[in-house]
Amino acid sequence: MTLVVLLLVPGLHLLDLAGPAQVFSTAADLGLGYRLHYTAEQEDVPTAQGLPVRASLDWPELTPDDLLIVPGWRAPTLHGHGPLDPATLRRLTEHHAAGGTVASVCAGADALGRAGLLDGRRCTTHHHVQDELARRHPAAHVVRDVLYVEDDRVITSAGIASGIDLALHLIAVRHGPGAAARIARAMVVYARRNGDEQQASAMLRHRAHLSDAVHRVQDLIDTRFADRLSLADLAAAAGVSERTLTRRFTDATGLTPLRYQQLLRTERADHLIGRGATVEAAARAVGFQDARMLRRLRARN
């Protein structure tokens, strides 16, 4: 069971909180083993939208597999907003030092900066406060105009709805693109938001286009990436000919449908290998009959 701890700060934006919370709540409904915990320095936390929320004053015991997320708050400027005690900031630092993942949405990146977690790392935040974040934390490398950035288990997102993209990315990395696609469909959101080349998820990296036919095919491949999918079946799902699908898919993504599926398989296999699986076991898990093709694709990438 993975614990997702959301640290609530006065003035928080409801969607900064609700977006990631909904992703992991839906993941729990699908049996992926998540439990949410809301903590704060005060029980009743006012929000930017006027609806107060209640949180626990207690911190649960965390393991390296658990996630700690700081949703953002209303901040025309970062200075003087988002108050957090030094003891709370130490919680962020200690979780990361123990091997855990720490994430933020929007202005929450400033809390990570005050905890020292942005020093020497790439990060991002809402475009309205990017310049100020860079001034306040000069040792950080602020990446502008992207949805989220991951650097050594520190993940920051641009703000508001991009918290959903951040959470879907974490699901895709931990459980594969099919799981992230199922959650996106359950939430009635498109898993098609783009970021920059540092995004680990191929599913999100190749969604920066407006072709509905190609998105439908990607939805199918995302869900069944470990299956053998014929071009004819994919074309039927898109309602176009095989030749038209290949042309439109390549124009939209720079890849053929087969190459896109291979990227998803290789990415998932790399994650399994990083968690201790053998190359042979990872190859079978993602749909290859043996490890030879996986080895060739990993060398190619």
Walk across the major sheet and give the strand order.
2-1-5-6-10-9
**DSSP helical segment count:** 13
The CATH architecture assignment of the largest domain turns out to be 3-Layer(aba) Sandwich
Radius of gyration: 20 Å
Strand residues, percent: 5-15%
Q: Outline, from the CA principal axes?
A: globular
Walkthrough of the structure:
InterPro entries: Class_I_gatase-like (IPR029062), DJ-1/PfpI (IPR002818), Homeodomain-like_sf (IPR009057), HTH_AraC (IPR018060), INH-QAR (IPR052158). GO terms for molecular function: DNA-binding transcription factor activity; sequence-specific DNA binding. Residues 215-301 form the HTH araC/xylS-type domain. Pfam families: DJ-1_PfpI, HTH_18. This protein folds into two domains: 2-172, Rossmann fold (3-Layer(aba) Sandwich); 209-301, Arc Repressor Mutant, subunit A, CATH 1.10.10.60. 46% of the residues lie in helices and 13% in strands. It contains 13 helices and ten strands. The strands form three sheets. It has a six-stranded mixed beta sheet with strand order 2-1-5-6-10-9, sandwiched between helices. Strands 3-4 form a two-stranded antiparallel sheet. Residues 194-200 have low confidence and may be disordered. Helix 1 links the parallel strand 1 (2-8) and strand 2. The longest helix is centred in the C-terminal third of the chain and has 18 residues, at 257-274. By secondary structure, it is α/β, with parallel strands linked by helices.
